[in-house]
């Protein structure tokens, strides 16, 4: 599973954006679950159309997450959060889906709900 934003965190971010006249963006990350790296070995039978290209009785080892795996949402969250942390964002202790980046120029707030993201700031 992937952590999801708490409802009160969403409300606080939207309230800040309205009251402080911050711009507000929403995005949906396409193919998000295909971006994550698997931490453990996962094997699968060949999908339809590929059975004849694999020796009978053999299985395939997955190197990346795919849709349908219970690990995929978590792998996506880990990949995204590490990317944000590497770029200087701080993760909230109260809600691990909230990331902030502050500088003299202002603040950027990113809130993650699985593969949907709210971005705001001044």
Structure description:
This protein has 122 residues and is α+β, with helices and mostly antiparallel strands. It has one domain (7-121). Helices cover 23% and strands 34% of the residues. It has 2 helices and 7 strands, in the order αβββαββββ. The strands form 2 sheets. The chain has a 5-stranded antiparallel β-sheet, with helices on both faces. Strands 2-3 form a two-stranded antiparallel sheet. A hairpin with a 2-residue loop joins β6 (106-113) and β7 (116-121). It is elongated and about 60 Å long. The two termini are 32 Å apart. The mean pLDDT is 93. Residues 1-121 form the Reverse transcriptase Ty1/copia-type domain. This is Retrovirus-related Pol polyprotein from transposon TNT 1-94.
Topology:
Blueprint: H1 7-19, E1 23-28, E2 37-44, E3 60-64, H2 72-86, E4 90-91, E5 98-103, E6 106-113, E7 116-121
Domain Reverse transcriptase Ty1/copia-type: 1-121
Pfam families: RVT_2
InterPro entries: DNA/RNA_pol_sf, RVT_2
């Amino acid at each position: 599973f992937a952590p999801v934003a708490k409802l009160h965190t969403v409300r606080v971010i939207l309230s800040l954006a309205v009251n402080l006249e911050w711009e507000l963006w929403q995005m949906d990350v396409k193919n998000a679950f295909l971006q994550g790296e698997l931490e453990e070995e996962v094997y699968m039978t060949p999908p339809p159309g590929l059975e004849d290209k694999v020796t009978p009785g053999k299985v395939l080892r997955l190197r990346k997450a795919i849709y349908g795996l219970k690990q995929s949402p978590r792998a996506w969250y880990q990949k995204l959060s590490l990317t944000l942390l590497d770029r200087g964002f701080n993760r909230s202790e109260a809600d691990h889906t909230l990331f902030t980046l502050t500088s003299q120029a202002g603040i950027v707030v990113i809130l993650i709900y699985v593969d949907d993201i709210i971005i705001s700031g001044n």
